[in-house]
Design goal:
Helix content is 33%, strand content 16%. It contains 7 helices and 11 strands. It has helices at 2-15, 58-71, 76-86, 99-102, 208-216, 221-262, 280-294, and strands spanning 18-24, 34-40, 46-47, 52-54, 91-93, 103-104, 109-114, 135-140, 146-152, 161-164, 184-187. The strands form 3 sheets. Strands 7-2-1-10-11 form a 5-stranded antiparallel β-sheet, with no helix packed on it. A hairpin with a 5-residue loop joins strand 8 (135-140) and strand 9 (146-152).
């Protein structure tokens, strides 16, 4: 269980990067169906199954979860699941089982239809938006944490969308103190800049991080100094590590040599004295044995002479012929 929890942590963290990107309340004056476009701002695939989408206010969800958890041991996600059963038209849990479609690719999007027909498929929510009034929508994680929310103003006309500005929205923005006008804008499809791109993320023409770095370091001196510092610091650290390792190994080798030098040396065997306990008969036997050993053979020239013999059985051709077997009658 602990291993499963550890492996699930990166996935849970990635779901925090899902953002509401664009909302349409009413497509035209006759069609009241709207839609919501979500965007995966992370650089890895995110599974959005079992996440919650609701039109209930943040305070209402928070107070309901607190009221239930204060009187029971129920976890927040279980509270939201029960709330889906009690108020199915106000909160929607993205169903599990459609894994192929609910796994959102990196830097990609998915669209949820606000048409009030959840039986039509995974991406159809049970509620609709109302034109001419403020509409609120929020996204909650599987554990009950708020991921993102937005209030669509009542001034949004049919055929217009409330969308994130072209410069993009940072994943960490979830703060009421930030003015909505600095993040959101209205698109009416009248120009290329205000084009409504359902299902397509607004591509950023400028990378804010690169531009900010260019302003602080226009000539690239600091980035060059930083890069070289990192490289040379790594080389110096490797040198120190290898130097310490070499000293440690040489010290161990010296200790081994000292132990070998300090080891006691075996005393040499005592030599047999020339005169002593050995009697004359033993000395005579030893001398006679040495004489027999050293004079066992006569002096020879060391030359071998081979003389051929006629009529050798090895040279007889008859011996090389196969004998004809004798058949007895």
């Amino acid at each position: 269980m602990l291993m499963c929890a550890i492996l699930a942590l990166p996935t849970m963290a990635q779901r925090k990067n899902v953002r509401i990107n664009e909302i349409m309340v009413q497509q035209d004056s006759t069609d009241g169906n709207g839609w919501v476009e979500f965007y995966n701002s992370s650089y890895s695939t995110v599974a959005v199954e079992k996440m919650f989408i609701t039109t209930l206010s943040r305070d209402e969800i928070t107070n309901h979860i607190k009221a239930v958890t204060d009187t029971s041991n129920m976890k927040p996600n279980k509270v939201l699941i029960e709330l889906c059963k009690e108020r199915p038209m106000d909160i929607y849990e993205i169903p599990r089982g459609d894994e192929r479609n609910t796994k959102i690719a990196p830097r990609s999007h998915f669209v949820m239809e606000a048409d009030g027909t959840p039986k039509a498929g995974t991406f159809h929510m049970p509620f609709t938006f109302t034109a001419g009034k403020d509409n609120y929508i929020a996204l909650y994680d599987v554990n009950g944490d708020l991921v993102d929310d937005v209030t669509i103003p009542a001034t949004l006309n049919p055929g217009e969308t409330y969308a994130v500005k072209a410069e993009g929205r940072l994943p960490s923005i979830l703060n009421d103190a930030i003015p909505a006008d600095s993040i959101w804008t209205v698109k009416d499809n009248s120009t290329i800049e205000t084009a409504i791109t359902k299902g397509n993320y607004n591509i950023r023409e400028v990378n804010e991080n690169i531009e900010a770095f260019h302003e602080k370091d226009p000539h690239g001196y600091w980035i060059a100094l930083l890069a070289m510092s990192v490289v040379f610091s790594a080389l110096a650290l490797l040198y120190i590590c290898f130097k310490l390792f070499g000293k440690f190994a040489s010290r161990n080798l010296k200790d081994d040599k000292k132990e070998e030098a300090a080891a006691p040396v075996a005393a040499p065997a005592a030599s047999v004295p020339a005169t002593g306990d050995v009697n004359g008969e033993t000395m005579a036997a030893i001398c006679f044995a040495l004489y027999q050993h050293l004079n066992a053979h006569d002096n020879e020239s060391g030359v071998l002479t081979l003389s051929p013999r006629d009529g050798s059985a090895w040279a007889g051709k008859t011996g090389l012929m196969r004998e004809i077997p004798v058949i007895k009658k």
